[in-house]
Amino acid sequence: MNLKKYLDNEFERALTALGQADATAVVKQASKPEFGHYQANGIMGAAKKAKKNPRELAEQVAEYIREGKLKDLLELEIAGPGFINIRLNTAFLCRELENMTSDNRLGVTRFASEKILIDYSSPNLAKEMHIGHLRSTAIGDAAVRVLEFLGHEVIRANHVGDWGAQFGSLLAYMDKLESEGAQLATELKDLEIFYQSASSLFKSDEAFAARAREFVVKLQSGDKKCLGLWSRFIEESIRHCQAIYDLLDISLTPGDVKAESAYNDMLDPTLAELEEKGLITLSEGAKCVFLDEFIGKEGEPIPAIVQKSDGGYPYMATDIAAAKFRGQELGVDQALYFVDGRQSLHLNQLYAIARKAGFISAEQNFRHIPFGTILNKEGRPFKTRDGGAVKLADVADEAVTRALSLIGDKNPDLTEDEKQNIARIVGIGAIKYAELSKNRKTDYIFDWDTMLSFEGNTAPYLQYAYTRIRSIFRRADTTPEGINHPFALIEAAEISLALKLLQYPETLESVIEDYQANILCNYLFEVSQLFMSFYESCPVLKADEATRGARLRLCDLSARTLQHGLGLLGIKTVEQM
Ligand code: ARG
Questions:
Q1: Final residue of a structural domain among 253, 278, 295
Q2: Does residue 46 sit within a domain?
Q3: CA-closest candidate to residue 268, choices 329, 327, 324, 230
Q4: H/E element, 117
Q5: Does residue 201 lie in a domain region?
Q6: Probe ligand 1: pick from 159, 258, 266, max atoms within 8 Å of CB?
Q7: Residue 464 reports pLDDT greater than 90
């Protein structure tokens, strides 16, 4: 059950009964322990509208609630100019813990069923995935998992870039190698080297560059040979991406790829429609859309180029076709684009054009979910020593290697296999969590030592808290299913932990308000901290039979919540480390 919503409804009902019908979102989580567990702070607003004395109205609301169905479940106290502090009784908390425990969804109801498309990861296939792709990939994947869990129908859209000028040199290079008798399959093993060799030839060799340009035109006009080479490259590149998704526990599959090239057949008719609707202006030979809302610093209009002067279709054209497909064919309620903040002009132009052209309706929510850049410790964009892009595959490998040495130090008794497995889960968890636990809108500093620390708001800390709980059960030589003592909340540390656990449903709902995965991270961090203080102040295994049973159940619910929440972030847990 969503506790906040439940209380909120009751307070809204009270206000309605007292003649204040339009009050909403009255109740919030209390910001300080002395304010109780929740606080009704929307009463002042209601009183102002009704020209009533807020404290008097608060008294009336409290009186109303005290007589209603919650009367034995909570205590109310009027505070300040018209707040009501709400303290939930332990009987209420115990009843809810019982419900949460017996529910494999941990009390989270499926409350929604929109069709939501998430455009995420979407790398350009000409190059290997680099560290910059981690943000869209990790944050997008967490959003997908949370939305699906809450009941939405989610379409994963991996809008990979597989079309455009950079493929000219790749194809020309493939052609050259093949004519020299080289094995393409071997050459394509390291895509990054392949790409670098192709582009340096493009720069140094005039004849090669001319061939490369020729190949672009040939490719776009459907030349068989070019298409054959191209698809071999794309297949290899997608295989490479999929290996990274699998290693990183990203839920994307090859079936989620709908590449830019998949929209080729739509480009001509889409452009024709834009022309028909009078949206196209010719500017220096290129077909452009000018919209009033996009003007530069000097007041100059900013064009969106939909067809270049040489007839080629740019990024924008494919994106308009994709938006049309998503709006009209898929009929999505929402399309969320998890893309770097630097593309916000492009995406906002895209949505505006698609809307103007009638490709997406007023009810369909198309939205850019932006994020900042990953920086190094010096606060500059993350690069390799020679200024190149840091490969995502290398980052993942390094994370696992670093985790392996930490795990080895921490628990030398593990077998080699166990160490490898744990290191993978801890290392990958660490880099993803570092990403997810930051405010997505700002730049963040990529720092190995912080993210792999067993202290602080990190994946290893949360994974470690989980293993601590599992080890309690191992020592007790029992399983959670074997215990049926009722919950009992006596110590303050038990109550705080219980309340936090019960706030899982409302936490997930606030995660998707603005796609802030860090809300879930902070929540799980708080659960772990509250668990640790509970475990320090409340003996479990040494307590009397009934208390031990009740506390073991609280331990178990904490472990389940941690595991489930981490799962929604795409992070696994281990039984020991
Ligand atoms: N391939 C693009 C890039 O790497 C990102 C694509 C994002 N999605 C979209 N529909 N534009 O920058």
A1: 253
A2: yes
A3: 324
A4: strand 115-119
A5: yes
A6: 159
A7: yes
**Ligand 1, atom 11, residue with closest C-alpha:** 319
Cα separation of the two ends of the chain: 33
Distance 32 CA to ligand 1 centre (A): 43
Structural domains in the chain (count):
2
Distance 442 CA to ligand 1 centre (A): 19
Q: Above 70 in pLDDT, residue 71?
A: yes
**Rg of the chain over CA atoms, in angstroms?**
28
DSSP secondary structure code for residue 252 in this structure: -
Q: Phi and psi dihedrals of 119, rounded to 5? A: -90, 110
User: Of 36, 57, 88, which residue constitutes the final position of a domain?
Assistant: 88
* Residue 563 identity (one-letter amino acid): Q
Decide if pLDDT at 390 tops 80.
yes
Residues with CB under 6 A from ligand 1: 119, 122-124, 159, 161, 319, 322, 337, 339
Q: Are 27 and 61 in contact (CB under 8 A)?
A: no
Which helix (H) or strand (E) segment holds residue 86: the answer is strand 83-88
Alpha carbons 113 and 332: distance in angstroms, whole number: 11
Distance 395 CA to ligand 1 centre (A): 21
Give how far the C-alpha of residue 266 lies from the chain's centroid of Cα atoms, to the nearest Å: 30
Q: Which of 424, 422, 425 is nearest to 413 (CA)?
A: 422
CATH number at residue 61: 3.30.1360.70
- Find out whether 563 and 104 touch, Cβ atoms under 8 Å: no
| Residues linked to residue 307 through DSSP beta bridges, in sequence order | 287
Record the tokens describing residue 405, joined without a space: 């040495």
Identify whether 13 is part of a domain.
Answer: yes
- C-alpha–C-alpha distance, residues 164 and 386, integer Å: 27
| Residues whose CB is less than 8 angstroms from the CB of residue 547 and which lie 6 or more positions away in sequence, other chains included | 488, 490
- For 474, other C-beta atoms within 10 Å of its C-beta total 12
Assess if residue 170 is contained within a domain: yes
Nearest Cα neighbor of 134 from 565, 481, 444 is 444
Bridge partners for 78 per DSSP? 84
Cα 124 from Cα 120, distance rounded (Å): 12
Question: In the structure, what pLDDT confidence band is assigned to residue 25 with cuts at 50, 70 and 90?
Answer: low
Distance, CA of 360 to CA of 221 (rounded, Å): 29
User: Atom 6 (ligand 1): residue with closest C-alpha?
Assistant: 122
pLDDT at 35 over 80: yes
Cα 220 to ligand 1 centre (Å): 20
Alpha-carbon dihedral 170, 398, 122, 188, rounded to 10 degrees: 20
- Ligand 1 atom 4: the closest Cα is on which residue? 123
The helix/strand/coil state of 150 is coil
Q: Catalogue the long-range contacts made by 450-455 (C-beta closer than 8 Å, 24 or more residues apart).
A: 452/399, 452/402, 452/403, 452/406, 452/426, 452/427, 454/406, 454/410
Q: How far is the CA of 256 from the centre of ligand 1 (A)?
A: 15
* Domain region containing 65: 3-88
Distance 306 CA to ligand 1 centre (A): 16
* pLDDT tens-digit map of 208-234: 999 998 998 888 888 999 999 899 999
Between CA 333 and CA 330 the distance in angstroms is 9
Atom from ligand 1 closest to the CA of residue 340 = 12
**Atom of ligand 1 at shortest distance to CA of 322?**
10
Length of the chain: 577
